[in-house]
Amino acid sequence: MRSLVLLLAVTLLPAGCLIPVSPGVSGTVERAAPGEDAVTLTYLGVGGWIIERGGDQILTGPLFSNPSIVATGLTPVRSDTVAVDRYMGRYEVSRALAILVGHAHYDHLMDVPRVARRHAPRAVILGSETVKNTLGTWSGVADRVLLVDDIAGTVEEEGEWIGLSPGVRVMPLYSHHAAHFEGYNLYQGALSRPLDGEPRWASEWLDGETYAFLIDFLAPDGGVDFRVYYQDAVCAAPRGLAPESVIRERPVDVAIIVPATFDQVEWHPEGLIQNLEPRSVILGHWENFFRSPDGDTRSVVLTDMRQFQARLDRVHRGESWMPDLWTVFRFPVS
Ligand SMILES: [Zn+2]
């Protein structure tokens, strides 16, 4: 029913709200010299990224199935394993250490079982109790979920660092999922019991608690070489912010920030920029994800990206990018 509401809302939007997106960036954004020690970020669309340095590789929950908006509203949806294999198979992720899942909506979790089983068999899944219970007994990967609910940090209090290897650690941060439109939040709720079957409808993928993450790539002496912030949903500050004490020691090198639905909360992205002091900002989850990854994901974007960019530019002095799918960023480790 709630899907139907979304479908109707989107269908009934006046054409003037369907905002064409100005050119972003594609290919490779090279900020490191050839052969230089670098952190690489590859955009897979929606909340999906490959974030890596040397042998330390982290994935964030990708979506390759991309059911259409009509299908999402009116028909059952399920992971398209052929599409997952086609797109994830382009990348070598068999040694990925972790898959970070900020919340359990279908566009962040539905393809994770296939990715975890087939492509990243060693990866632990970092997520909420609702993530684990949604994966339930049917997916075969719920026992790989490391729950972050009790160890996440806030702006005032540091959370626990999860060491994934000697070279990388992750801290979950309490966040929140902004409304989708007009204060209306789709697919809201938590699961306290494991599902014994795959959810059939988009509306059965409940968000649960939402988290953002700090990812630190470490020097041999334990110092921080490079710091990434990742969110997969817009959130109203102070939720989603990193502990001030952690940022005081080292600001963020690259912040992955979500623009979609930014107008549903106050002070986004301003609060995040003030808190994280990022050197660079990359926008994720901005494109039209109701289309195939190979389709035209730039048109019919419902977020006013120009307005978002203008607000970002007022507070962020460094570089920022809005990448097309498959864009690769290489940043030198300093
Ligand atoms: Zn969501």
Please, could you describe this protein's structure?
- The structure is a single chain.
- This protein is of the alpha/beta class and 334 residues long.
- Residues 1-18 have low confidence and may be disordered.
- The N and C termini lie far apart (51 Å).
- It has a single domain (36-332), classed as Metallo-beta-lactamase, Chain A (4-Layer Sandwich), CATH 3.60.15.10.
- Helices cover 20% and strands 22% of the residues.
- The chain binds zinc ion.
- Zinc ion (ZN) binds next to loops.
Largest sheet: 8 strands, mixed
Instruction: Name the structural class.
Output: alpha/beta
Identify the strand order in the major beta sheet: 1-15-2-3-4-5-6-7
Say how many strands there are.
15
CATH fold-level assignment: Metallo-beta-lactamase, Chain A
Low-confidence stretches: 1-18
- β content, as a range? 15-25%
The CATH class assignment is Alpha Beta
Helix and strand pattern: HEEEEHHEHHEHEEEEEHEHEHEE
List the helices and strands and how they pair.
Blueprint lengths: L1 H11 L15 E3 L7 E8 L2 E6 L2 E5 L8 H6 L6 H8 L9 E3 L5 H4 L2 H8 L4 E4 L1 H7 L9 E3 L14 E4 L2 E7 L36 E8 L5 E7 L13 H6 L4 E4 L12 H7 L3 E4 L21 H11 L3 E3 L6 E5 L2
Parallel strand pairs: 1-15, 4-5, 5-6, 6-7, 11-12, 12-13, 13-14
Antiparallel strand pairs: 2-3, 2-15, 3-4, 8-9, 9-10, 10-11
Zinc ion (ZN) binds next to loops.
Short summary:
The protein is α/β, with parallel strands linked by helices.
